[in-house]
Amino acid sequence: MSSIILNTLRRQCVSQFRTRLIQQSFLTTTSRGFHIAPIARAPKPHQKDEFSHLEAAHSPDQFGTLSPQVDEPETPDEGDLKEEDFLQNIPAPGQKLSVRQYADLIKDHLKNNRIREALDVVEVRMKQDRVKPVNYHFNLLIGGCARVGYSKKAFQLYNKMKQHDLKVTGGTYTSLFNACAVSPFLGDGLKRANQLREIMLEKGYEPNESNYNAMIKAYGRCGELKTAFQLVDEMVARRLSIGTDTFNFLLQACISDREYGFRHALLVWHRMHRMRISPDRYSFNLLLRCVRDCQLGDLETTQQVIEQILSESIVEPGNAGKRVPAIEEPSVEAIERSEEDNAEQQRKLATIVTNRELTERLNHEGVPDLLSPQPHLGSLVRLGEVRKPEDRLLLLGGSSNVFAEMRRCGTEPDIRTITELLDVIPSTYAAEKQLLGTIKQLKLRCDIDFFNILIKKRSMRFDYEGAKDVLYMIEAANLEPDIVTYGVLALGCQTQEEARSLLKMMHEADVRMNIQILGAMLRQGCAKQNFRYVTEILQIVKRERLKPNEPFLRHLEEFGRVCEKRDREYDAKPRKRGRDEFKQEYNRYRMQLDAWREHMGLQGLALDQALGIVREHPWEQFKEPQAEGYEAVKNPKLRHKRKKQHSIRRVDVEAIEDVDDRRQGKDHDQTKEVKLAH
């Protein structure tokens, strides 16, 4: 019975199919001008309709399968290949590692600064092993990206954590804010910090002390000082612990404000005194950095801030009785008064004490001291005279008062403190001699960074002979010059001969030159308007296949403008002396500069376009694996090895002579050859 029904249905389908084909054939011939339709013909192979790919089963026992006959694609689908690979290449059980082992792999890459390889552990290795990462793995990677300022990748990993439904901990937020703080793009870092803070508020997450410190660091370094100070007020309102680290991050925020930072730093410093928080060595180093980089701002507001600091230091609890012993104690009758009268008398007493002490502070003789808990202005006449770093250091009482305050706080200075002081002391031999004497007295060990700053300081005041003399101190301290030493020495290469001599020293010391050293030489050549000197530097850059950086191109651009102006002046005065020599050298220089620009691929480009080519994105280095041939540090102790430090007891501080004494004819061997210690 079933076979009869199936055959009947089959005959009906075939009949309908033939009828439709006849109708299509009739319509086709009619459109071509024929009035009589011939017998139905099967469609040609190249003609396709909706039934051309259908076939029916010829078995009388089956209804028929209308299955489409689709040609196989020429290129296989990528998703199908991935699925096939996933199903066939099942990892062996021994290939999978434990959570701890994957974490150790990530840590090892991060310790050796292999960011790309550390990311590949989660993004490639664990995916191939078919192991789901946990939040500990993501926290390690976010922390590693945060330390190098790779904020974009850190937030991408944070989003992946949420996609994997992993728990976001307080350490995750701390690392993300650290990524915003260290980001090379301040605007982007501030934007991400605001977004992250909004997410924390939406989720109802209450930050802890570490989160608040990271937020203060992020907002402070990104230039948002107001928000950084508001976060400290939130910590006080929530009764969270505020320690030295919190104030250190506030001092970092002050450094970011170059115009008003020193004034803010004074307020932060004395807020520490009022809260009975003792500053550490890092606090003093940050304060000295504020002295170097930041200004006082407008004088009227600064004067008000200083008076506020003086007033608050006077009425500080527990100090009034120590500072003003001349005030008599209240009588017995006064003690028996009511509480209102007693409070009124105490307010009057505090006002008298404050006014008297404030007058004494303002009329204090001697050097100003705004560093100690009992600050005073000393014999300062006008704040308008405070313009240089050494003037701001004088407001703190000078370097001797800084050391005295460190002793009072129970903190010992280190070589970084001395290096920061070297940047802010007066640029004279007497001040440098005094500082070296302090180093010997404190028995501190110096590193090469201190002597590099000393060379730079003397070079910036055009004392190039004194800068070369520092090399003898380096040799006496049993230290070796590094690449920075040659860079600051290049600042004093005024002629081609001096530049060649320094390059020869570097070659003998097996130190490869870089674009920063050649840029310092180029700066001197442009300042001296020495075309042959500048041309030789360009040839060295071409020969050594170095890529010019932004300062290098800016020096060339500025030098070109100066030469064009001088060329126009000679054209206006054809008989002016030196015209022919300048024209000849200038034309030769322009030809060689054009050839150099063409070789570098900068020909015909404006300065902004050229800078866009040579400027490297700071995150590109994290997108490529580490170069082949890089030898990893096998000894864990060498990874955290500090710079070599030695005592300077062999340095003869008394032999340091002022440049004025040299000009007066005092004994100074001008013929001695400058040699580097190897």
What do you see in this structure?
With 678 residues, the chain is mainly α. It is 61% helix and 1% strand. The chain has helices spanning 2-31, 78-88, 99-111, 115-128, 135-147, 151-163, 170-182, 186-203, 209-221, 225-237, 244-255, 261-274, 281-293, 299-314, 320-323, 332-335, 339-362, 389-395, 398-408, 415-424, 429-442, 448-460, 464-476, 483-489, 496-508, 515-527, 531-543, 550-572, 579-600, 607-614, 636-639, 659-663; strands spanning 445-446, 646-647. Strands 1-2 form a two-stranded antiparallel ribbon. The longest helix is centred in the N-terminal third of the chain and has 30 residues, at 2-31. It is globular, with a radius of gyration of 39 Å. Residues 132-308 form the PROP1-like PPR domain. Residues 636-647 have a biased composition (Basic residues). GO terms for molecular function: tRNA binding. Keywords: Repeat.
Helices, strands, pairings?
Blueprint: H1 2-31, H2 78-88, H3 99-111, H4 115-128, H5 135-147, H6 151-163, H7 170-182, H8 186-203, H9 209-221, H10 225-237, H11 244-255, H12 261-274, H13 281-293, H14 299-314, H15 320-323, H16 332-335, H17 339-362, H18 389-395, H19 398-408, H20 415-424, H21 429-442, E1 445-446, H22 448-460, H23 464-476, H24 483-489, H25 496-508, H26 515-527, H27 531-543, H28 550-572, H29 579-600, H30 607-614, H31 636-639, E2 646-647, H32 659-663
Antiparallel strand pairs: 1-2
Helix pairs in contact: 3-4, 3-5, 4-5, 5-6, 5-7, 6-7, 7-8, 7-9, 8-9, 9-10, 9-11, 10-11, 11-12, 11-13, 12-13, 12-14, 13-18, 13-20, 14-17, 20-22, 22-23, 22-24, 26-27, 26-28, 27-29, 28-30
